[in-house]
């Protein structure tokens, strides 16, 4: 049973933001494959009740500011009954990047995130269509400035380079400069109607507009096909490319399985695990380009099951995962804004990536400054023995007997945090600290304090930075 729970903890960290030990036990009793099916069929799970937030944060009715949107999303990550939906939203946000630094309208980006929640597990070309007609993206990549007589290539270039194909694979380019130009021509006339100003009735979001009079209706040749293409045609051509299957598969592997080289290196750097990438590529075509089907195959694969602690946590995963562990912020309360900003301090300014390329992941999340933020945040949260999740761990250990040995104190904390494993040297060092104080009675005033301190040791290790 312990191995089943450890595997379930791995799944819930990757397909969500972690889970309490009680939830892991319930899911392990249901079974791994049944849990995967439940996770990928998000529409069968209840939607999140957001009305309660508006009663506590009345300024969220318009929710235009960046910080309020970051707090809003942090709350969703911690409390969502649809963990994979929220994780996939984060996945696509890191690929289809739009930044508040240019849009300066957090609500407009929130509306884009809602599209990721709704369509992020569907068919890839449908998702690209939602992206191409999203006002935040149209504005961010200047397609409202692309006209039939004066083409702007920003959107066309990024659609191919960063959103669908990648520069190349297996040492060969995936498209040419002529393909970029023809793609940009096909998307002329795809523009946006400006948002209505905030005053006096409250700001209305911008809307996508297609202007046929500003569209280039001439013949175009794109990726070897010729026709009077519009944007929809371009996306359908893209979706059936082998490069699109590789693009989605490598991103999926990098986000859900194990850290890969950064995207710019993909043309000349083969995947670490070509067998699993091929498995995903095959499912991409077999399922008709469906993301949900690919993730079901991935989560049930041996490669995924054996990839425990092979990825550095993103800042969002550190914060949301720690808060899910402690059981805090399960309802709106003071301090939500502050904890949401911890994600920014760790290097991931949600809704405001540094460039259209997004964030570099893996070990590049970590430097001397962000590591201190990670350690201080996690240790500060788990050290509060009044937090519901920490109190639950204390009670579980107390129920095991009248006393708890130093060895069991360490092993129990590792187990209840999510079956983490420590390097021998780290394990010996922490155990040595615990042995200096000896065993502890579970009915003593110091017991909860000892558990809290041990949890602080655990989350301050290098191993806790991995998922």
How is this structure best described in words?
With 467 residues, the chain is mainly α. The chain has three domains: 1-36, no CATH class; 37-305, no CATH class; 315-465, no CATH class. The chain is built from 24 helices and eight strands. It has a two-stranded antiparallel sheet with strand order 1-2. A hairpin with a 2-residue loop joins β5 (220-222) and β6. α11 (154-161) crosses α12 (177-186) and α22 crosses α24. 45% of the residues are buried.
What is the approximate shape? globular
Span between N and C termini?
A: 21 Å
The helix-and-strand class reads mainly alpha
What proportion strand? under 5%
User: Any low-confidence stretches, pLDDT <50, length ≥5?
Assistant: none
How many β-strand runs? 8
Give the overall average pLDDT.
95
Rg: 24 Å
Share of helix, binned: 40-55%
The number of helical runs is: 24
Query: Could you describe the largest sheet, including whether it forms a barrel?
Result: 2 strands, antiparallel
How many structural domains? 3
């Amino acid at each position: 049973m312990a191995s089943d729970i450890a595997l379930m903890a791995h799944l819930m960290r990757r397909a969500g933001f972690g889970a309490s030990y009680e939830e892991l036990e319930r899911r392990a009793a249901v079974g791994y494959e049944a849990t995967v099916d439940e996770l990928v069929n998000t529409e069968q799970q209840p939607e999140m009740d957001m009305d309660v937030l508006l009663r506590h944060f009345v300024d969220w009715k318009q929710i235009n500011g960046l910080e309020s949107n970051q707090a809003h999303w942090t709350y969703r990550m911690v409390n969502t009954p649809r963990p994979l939906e929220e994780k996939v939203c984060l996945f696509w946000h890191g690929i289809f990047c739009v930044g508040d630094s240019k849009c300066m309208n957090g609500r407009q980006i929130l509306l884009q995130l809602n599209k990721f929640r709704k369509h992020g597990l569907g068919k890839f070309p449908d998702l690209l269509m939602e992206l191409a007609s999203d006002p935040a993206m149209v504005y961010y990549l200047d397609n409202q400035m692309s006209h039939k007589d004066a083409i702007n290539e920003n959107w066309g270039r990024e659609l191919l380079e960063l959103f669908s194909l990648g520069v190349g694979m297996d040492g060969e380019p995936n498209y040419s400069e002529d393909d970029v130009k023809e793609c940009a021509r096909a998307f002329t006339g795809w523009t946006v109607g400006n948002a209505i100003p905030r005053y006096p009735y409250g700001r209305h979001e911008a809307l996508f507009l297609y202007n046929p009079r500003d569209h280039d209706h001439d013949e175009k040749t794109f990726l070897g096909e010729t026709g009077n293409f519009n944007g929809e045609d371009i996306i359908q051509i893209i979706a059936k490319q082998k490069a699109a299957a590789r693009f989605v598969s490598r991103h999926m592997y990098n986000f859900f399985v194990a850290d890969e080289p950064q995207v710019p290196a993909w043309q000349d750097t083969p995947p670490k695990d070509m067998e699993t990438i091929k498995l995903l590529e095959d499912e991409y075509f077999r399922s008709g380009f469906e993301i949900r089907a690919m993730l079901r195959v991935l989560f049930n694969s041996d490669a995924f099951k054996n990839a425990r602690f092979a990825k550095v946590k993103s800042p969002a995963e550190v914060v949301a995962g720690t808060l899910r562990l402690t059981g805090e912020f399960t309802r709106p309360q003071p301090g939500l804004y502050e904890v949401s900003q911890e994600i920014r301090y760790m290097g991931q300014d949600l809704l405001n990536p540094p460039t259209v390329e997004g964030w570099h992941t893996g070990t590049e999340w970590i430097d001397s400054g962000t590591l201190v933020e990670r350690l201080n945040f996690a240790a500060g949260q788990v050290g509060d023995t009044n937090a519901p999740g920490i109190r639950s761990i204390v009670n579980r250990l107390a129920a095991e007997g009248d006393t708890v040995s130093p060895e069991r104190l360490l092993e129990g904390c590792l187990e209840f945090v999510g079956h983490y494993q420590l390097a021998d040297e780290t394990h010996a060092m922490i155990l040595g600290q615990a042995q200096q104080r000896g065993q502890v009675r579970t009915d003593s005033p110091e017991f909860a304090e000892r558990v809290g301190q041990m949890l602080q040791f655990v989350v301050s290790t290098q191993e806790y930075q991995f998922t």
